[in-house]
Amino acid sequence: RSSWLLLAPLLTPPVPVITAPPCSLCPKGAHRFQWIRNLVPEFGISSSHVKVLSSPTEFYELLKVQIKTAKQRVVMASLYLGTGLLEQELVDCLEETLEKSLQAKGSPNLRVSILLDYTRGSRGRKNSRTMLIPLLQRFPEQVRVSLFHTPNLRGLLRLLIPERFNETIGLQHIKVYLFDDNVILSGANLSDLYFTNRQDRYVLLQDSPEIADFFTELVDAIGDVSLQLQQDDTVQMMEGMVHPYQGDKMAYCEIANRRVMEVINSARMRQELLHAKTFHSSQQGSSLLSQQGAQASGGLKPEPDTWIYPLIQMKPFGIQIDEMVTETLLTEAERDARIYLTTGYFNLTQAYMDLILGTRAEYRILLASPEVNGFFGAKGVAGAIPAAYVYIEHQFYSEVCYLHQQERVQLQEYSRAGWTFHAKGLWLYLAGSDLPCLTLIGSPNFGYRSVHRDLEAQVAIVTENKALQQQLHQEQEQLYLCSGVVSSSTFEQPNRYVKLWVKLVTPLIKNFF
């Protein structure tokens, strides 16, 4: 097939829908972000339950430890599971833990649910599916593997687009790893690069049953509208469920929207009732002394100083919560506030670019230099993707200079020999503060794909606790230490040369990578 045939389905990008911000921020401290609970559940926890990780090896070792100690549930959502030795070791850990559960007295309690993307997880002869089939065969009652297939890849389009290219249409991109009541939020996939030398972000929420329940229900909901992997490597939908690419698209998307919004709204109602009950019980005439006594004896949980808000973005299903919250944060950030925003793939939506260029806060945007881009050195057309990102970066930098915003909006490029860069999220520093009170961490890259094509989830972590704010600040500093400030001379370097054909094609296909 000619390369033009491969690009044909990519030439007409869908028209983006602009969503108005839902509200304004309240005036004081971390509590100014409580408006987010009008959209999603608010989970109040102690900051002592939050641990920020810094390295791929730390992430990998934690995954193994958590799998080995899980008793009730292991729920893992990722783009794909790799096929190397490190990934096999993870599968072996799952098998060992499931085996122990089988041998325990009574019926086995441990349930394992894995959600991956269908197209990425099916790539190649040896793939995510072949890695997991032995678990399905050995533990059919305890293991579930769901493969999400975007409803936008169907009909002639599905027949024409070859492997790898079909992943441009839409993916399951959520990365959540939970074990009993411990939850890891990250942008990292389950692949050896993400366990060794691909820098990402990772946060562990310990002993957080309500948060673990929410993400279990979310993964279950997406799993219910996904293809179910069978022991013989075939796939089939759950009985009575509309098929994502053979059935009616509108009906499928409506069902998916209903399932996911049921999870979000029921959790929001539960948390509101819990909040009201806690507030009411604290008002019932107990003196400060008796409250302290109850706390000392374990009768009352400590007051939360940290709040977790799950932000979901699933535009194919008409769910745009993450987009609404992110746009509002960028819109309402005050003068002299600082926003550190990072993405491994710098390809911001027009709405995000307009807000960054048109609002008052200072921005420090961290992105990948060409050498640490995940596509650097790739074969074929994919090898030109780093150059396309350079072109997009140069265009944005030129716009910053044209508007004389170089002092307020600064680009920095991550560079580290032998590593690639995949971190994404933001840290918000209020005016006059040296520490962040809010961070976003999860799967979205702030690009067109994240907003319009893929299934995404991240959390907003808001904290009043200085020790946790310091952890988040150190995480930000550690990432930005490996960077250099972008200037006009950056684009004069030989490795920043962008071929004419890349410049011509980039505007046509930038919404697909």
Known CATH architecture of the largest domain: 2-Layer Sandwich
CATH topology of the largest domain: Endonuclease, Chain A
| Alpha-carbon Rg, integer | 23 Å
Give the C-level CATH assignment of the largest domain. Answer: Alpha Beta
Task: Please estimate the helix content.
Answer: 25-40%
Percent in strands: 15-25%
Secondary structure class reads: alpha+beta
User: Domains counted in the coordinates: how many?
Assistant: 2
Head-to-tail CA distance between termini: 21 Å
Sequence stretches where pLDDT stays below 50 over 5 or more residues: 1-27, 287-291, 293-298
Average pLDDT, rounded to a whole number, is: 90
Protein name: CDP-diacylglycerol--glycerol-3-phosphate 3-phosphatidyltransferase
Main location: mitochondrion
Keywords: ATP-binding, Lipid biosynthesis, Lipid metabolism, Mitochondrion, Nucleotide-binding, Phospholipid biosynthesis, Phospholipid metabolism, Repeat, Signal, Transferase
Family: Belongs to the CDP-alcohol phosphatidyltransferase class-II family.
